[in-house]
Write a structure and sequence with these properties.
Structural class of chain A: mainly alpha
Largest sheet of chain A: 3 strands, mixed
Strand order of the largest sheet of chain A: 1-3-2
CATH class of the largest domain in chain A: Mainly Alpha
Oligomer: homodimer
Number of strands of chain A: 3
CATH topology of the largest domain in chain A: Neurolysin, domain 3
Order of helices and strands of chain A: HHHHHHHHHEEEHHHHHHHHHHH
Mean pLDDT of chain A: 97
Low-confidence stretches of chain A: none
Number of helices of chain A: 20
Shape of chain A: globular
Distance between the termini of chain A: 68 Å
Helix content of chain A: 55-70%
Chain lengths: 499, 499
């Protein structure tokens, strides 16, 4: 195969793979937003057929020859093409080790499990979800076993979401973070709680929907390329830079739940919308890693979204959307309310300070499940015990406990640490950004464009052209510094609670 | 290839084809309901990739051998399998004559054209849509030419939607229908118009959305298998019997617009939901023809939905949803209002009496376009002239004229006659149903279950196992009788307007 024929084949393969990713993504989105309840089994058949087609696109002698040709002549390739070959080769190797039947059955299982989880959560019925979760864990243990060069099966799964992340690195990171956060959380708990009553008045859903549109405008999300939907669990799916979807979940008596979901998912969306046009229809139109992706969502949600300057820009919008509810609220009151810290049950609604503990709980439980040290049947009790130990809260039911997150139902084990890493990456990016530009002046004016432009230039437009380490180096001018995040939290909460 | 191997391959092929139909259907639905405006070009690439995969599934030596094997041993096959082979063989022959590049480019074009039409309609900009329409016409003329055994290219297209329908049969049918309707329409126009003011009060959209749910319950649509969305142009897409979608379009000052769209699409949905479980994942889980499909939508919309007994069942629901607007409305007033007949601009909102004229206009224009007797550029003027001639109305803009329907943007030329045929089929089914059961007692009680069960038994469950002629014979106990429809309209409108 000649070099130019191989490049031509690479381009065709990537376009085809985009199409299957797109179609399966829209089927998933439709399932979570619109599809009728009884539609799941037939959709899982469709997912099985499409995943088999996708598997066979990648795993076949012709693709292997094409990738080998390009790897042998890597020196002759442009940097982006070389990187595409590297990313695809890895994906080829990971996929080729999985027998096609297992790959397809697993796709079908994920589509079924997602529907079962939705219903189980609604009905607080862990027993209905447990058999699916058992199968999902078993598949993931087997898939982990197919990968080589990892100290533990869980390390192999972590690597899918954050290349290079291992338990050997995360164990001490989480231990030291927990050691720094625990006294801070205790100190905060001894202080009087700020006012939050106004966040829990009645916020009718039609008004919240309009508010979401205002928030999306404030974030600078292009409405021609990004729209919002409603799901049980908020998420973002970027099919390409012209088609990014975010979702939220409204609660009538908690305006901040959806508000911070929109800002969080909006952060993911800005990353997807900002990826270079030259990367589209290639595997590089993707996050550098899930940790880097979560750095963007958590950046907008917390570092920007829960800052005092942002509250200044936000309050007038909230007053317009909710004049009654916000009547006696001023900027400091709003700022303190959206940063109230107290141990709680739901990860996605947790404050910045206690949030990492929610992640550590999932991390510990996943390690045990994937190592085979714990059965799925033991999971709810272990979950509740860890919430008691780490956060001092009693879990009243599985709906607010082990069934709360969507990740496991989609087969994502090893994903959760991305949130904690992302939060830490973001803190480090902010420190660098503050040195280079007037972050807070822009935010206070309600103009996030300069912030997004800074991230766009250093991070977004490069997509997966960067490894996570390169992405960090580009955005922070330095390698990962885990202390930066704990320093940021200490400073912020000491100020808020006058510690 | 052995017979049992061929049957096994047939089953696999049909499951795979269901998956692609499902995925492409969901992508289209998403495009019409949720997707951001700028997403169309990338989606059309995805549609191109999927349509090529679908083409290659069907058109390849292995499939041909399988189909030939089964056709040669047709006598050894069960009736449903034999019918599947027959339907697929026809589809194979039609598709194989189209070069794959043309097939794929056409899929891509349709996906683009749909988005362009949406925008053109919104902005009343025919010129923006015209180049796409030109290409669509050219493709359809070429595709018609690939088919053999038709007197004219337009006949070849008609056959796609209604097997056996030809201009030789439709020309005299439409001529005689027009001859019977014209004096009736004139007579009605000389009578005083009934009250319709209350239909045009303000009906806020949130209340209309709740009303749609009530209508769907009244129709007996299973909410676990059928849900509603909102689109510019209402439609139904049944992916399988567990997943049927209908859509509507709300107008704040016209409650009947969406109401009759929901009932119309609900009729399509009942057909799809009623198709036999044994037909699922095969080509027989489909309407016998588009005419038969439209017979069901038009049956519920008009024969049932605009009947006096249905108005009795409907009024209490409308009163609950719209107490203010419906305060001084009684059953006869509602009945007369929803049957007001006057020549109008918009097909989907036309009354039963003038509706066929809207179809005849499209039929005449399509004949000219496909014959090459008229250019796309001449279409708006020809459209407006025909509305003047047939209906005596002046078309104020293309939005309310030639741009109103979605069909051409999706490449459907030859579809419109299905509506007129369907209306006529339905009238004949009703005559038979009235002989066999107490239709109006059930409808008056708001219990459509016996009506749907009757249609389910004779029509719905058989799907495409029946040809259109067989479907008619099963549901009417007789072949097509074109007079039945004109008789029905004459009787109904003579009563309504005391002619």
């Amino acid at each position: 195969m000649t070099l130019s024929a191989a490049i031509e084949e690479l381009n065709i393969l990537e376009k085809n793979m985009h199409a299957y990713r797109h179609a399966m993504g829209v089927l998933s989105l439709d399932s979570a937003t619109c599809a009728p309840a009884a539609s799941a089994p037939a959709r899982s058949e469709t997912m099985g057929v499409l995943s088999e087609a996708r598997y066979r696109l990648l795993v076949n002698p012709r693709t292997e020859e094409m990738l080998r040709t390009l790897r042998e002549q890597a020196a002759a390739l442009d940097v982006p093409v070389r990187r595409r070959v590297e990313v695809l080769w890895e994906s080829y190797q990971d996929t080729t080790r999985i027998p096609v039947r297992e790959y397809v059955d697993y796709s079908r299982l994920c589509a079924q499990a997602d529907a079962v989880w939705h219903r189980a959560k609604e009905e607080n019925d862990f027993a209905a979800f447990a058999p699916y979760l058992e199968k999902l864990v078993a598949y993931n243990r087997r898939f982990a076993g197919y990968k080589t060069g990892f100290a533990t099966p869980y390390d192999a799964l972590l690597d899918d979401y954050e290349k290079g992340a291992t338990t050997a690195m995360l164990d001490p990171y989480f231990a030291s973070l927990r050691a720094r956060l625990t006294p801070l959380i205790r100190a905060v708990s001894e202080k009087p709680a700020p006012r939050t009553d106004f966040l829990h008045l009645r916020y009718p859903l039609p008004e919240q929907r309009l508010f979401s549109q205002r928030l999306m405008a404030l974030l600078g999300l292009d409405p021609a390329r990004c729209v919002i939907g409603e799901t049980e669990h908020p998420f973002t799916d970027g099919f390409n830079r012209w088609d990014v979807r975010i979702t939220t979940h409204y609660q009538e008596y908690d305006v901040s739940a959806s508000m911070y979901s929109v800002i969080h998912e909006g952060g993911h969306a800005l990353y997807e919308l900002g990826m270079g046009e030259d990367l589209q229809f290639t595997c590089l139109a993707d996050g550098a890693s899930m940790g880097i992706h979560e750095s963007q969502s958590r950046f907008y949600e917390n570092l920007i979204g829960r800052s005092l300057p942002f509250c200044k820009a936000l309050l007038p919008v909230m007053r317009e959307c909710f004049p009654e509810q916000m009547r006696d609220v001023d900027v400091p009151t709003l700022y303190r309310a959206v940063n109230v810290s107290r141990p709680s049950l739901i990860r996605t609604e947790a404050d910045e300070l206690t949030y990492p503990l929610h992640i550590m709980i999932r991390y510990e439980l996943e390690k045990r499940l994937i190592a085979g040290d714990m059965k799925v049947a033991e999971l709810p009790e272990a979950w509740n015990a860890m919430y008691r130990e780490y956060l001092g809260v009693e879990v009243p039911d599985d709906r607010q406990g082990v069934l709360q997150d969507t990740h496991w139902s989609g087969g994502a084990f090893g994903y959760f640490p991305s949130y904690a890493l992302g939060s830490a990456y973001g803190a480090q990016m902010l420190a660098r950004m503050e040195q280079e530009m007037d972050v807070w002046g822009a935010v206070e004016r309600g103009d996030l464009q300069p912030v997004t432009a800074w991230l766009g230039e250093k991070l977004h437009r490069h997509g997966k052209l960067f490894t996570p380490a390169q992405a960090l180096q580009s955005a922070c001018g330095a390698p990962f510094d885990p202390d930066c995040y704990a320093d940021y939290l200490t400073k912020k909460y000491s100020g808020l609670y006058a510690l």
